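for the writeup, i need someone to sanity check this before i put it in the appendix. the sequnce is what the collaborator sent (i think, or maybe the updated version? ugh). structure was predicted straight from it, no edits. if anything looks off just tell me and ill rerun, i have time this weekend
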Amino acid sequence: MSTRTVANDLNPQQATGAKAVATVIALPPMAAHLLGRHAEHIAKGERFERESEVIGARLESMPLPEAEAEVRKLGRRVRKLEQEGEELAGLRAAYVADVQVMVREREKAQLAARLDEARRAPAGTPPNDAAPAHEYTTAELFDDHVRARKVRGKERAQATVESWEGLRVKLEQHLPRLAKDITHHGLLRYVETRRGEGAGERIRKELVFLKAALKLAYKSDLFATDPEKVIPELDSMAKPRQRTLTVEEVWAIVNKLAARSKAGREHAALFAWAVATGAEFGGWKHAKPSDLREDLRGCQVHGTKNEHRDRFAPTFLPEQMKLLAFARKHARGKKGRFFLPWGNTNANRDLKLVCAALGIEPCSTHDVRRTYADWWLAAGVRDSLIDAALGHAPADVLTKHYRRGRFEPEDMLRMFEADVAAHAQRPLDGGRHLHQAPPAEVAGDLRTPPGRPTDPPVDLRTGPIAQSVELRTFNP
């Protein structure tokens, strides 16, 4: 078993002299302290590995009681090393977070000072600390752009900042070192190269990022050509996914996940909750048991992409309430969290494997949002209300500028119920309703989750509001 529980990029020889290095380069006291403890931890791990190899070679010749005692001692040392490693990892993560906050604040102050100096300077005069246009590098171009976007006033999600870094890595890899050498003809070659690498639609995102950076440099007289004349126009090659899940497919996936292992049952609970609430992946780790209403008719979702993503999602459709009942019963979150962590890469991989085993079209973590919207569209809810429940930024002027604040949960439920009730009075067009009985050829076990009795089919035309009130006392 490996005892190196703290991720590091120092080999043992480097780590041995870590304290001396920290002294020479005058690191901050906390950083020097962490580096020294890190070196000691690695040395302990190396020593333990050597001693455990010696003891392991002697175990076969020892009497059984002595061998068992030695194994217990080794186990205690392993646990102690693991605890030290976890403590160091926590201290380092906290220190890195503090440093990142300080760096962001310093960058904001520096950029604010530069902008203030630029406003006070005569027209056409570049800031004193700005590099001349002929020396302005592509790396500086992107640094200035990222800083400017961070200080516009809106807090950026960490995933957004990381996506910027991914875009600039490829751009810096292929573009000239100096910003002044970026030309339309050169970018056409860039597009050709990236298409040869199989980049596809990502090329357009990279060019959009580059165009925004060039616009800022152009305004600051650090780039001589209008970006509109430099950036080539590309036709979109994207094919938007339209994958949504039926009720039968959702329960089939929940069943299959739950049957895999104890962790699989936890993943099944998280998947059921995500489908019922339309939560994006970024909101999964922020879910709390208190977000879910006792009557299961709605849930608060804590998305982070923008201010609209922290919202209330109505969930009073019968299948949504049964999914939430399953999630509440099997969730095993810790420290105030509803669920245990399930990484995006692992989640998409697991869902792909489960769908392949079931013989259905693959689905992803984002498809649950389309499913949530599709179910409410089938129930007759208007688009603007579904947008609000999904946390989309309002597109119309009335909602964006004149409706102050957000809908209260009770108002959302009332408007959703009114739309569902109005839709239920309309004659069906011959298609099967979302909550009508599935076709006979669908296997019964795909509709019945673990621990859930088989329920009679529900038709929203028979009284959606009455049906939802009746299900408020649903007890899985």
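The first strand starts at residue 298 and ends at 302. Confidence is low (pLDDT under 50) at residues 1-26, 124-129, 428-476.
thx in advance!!
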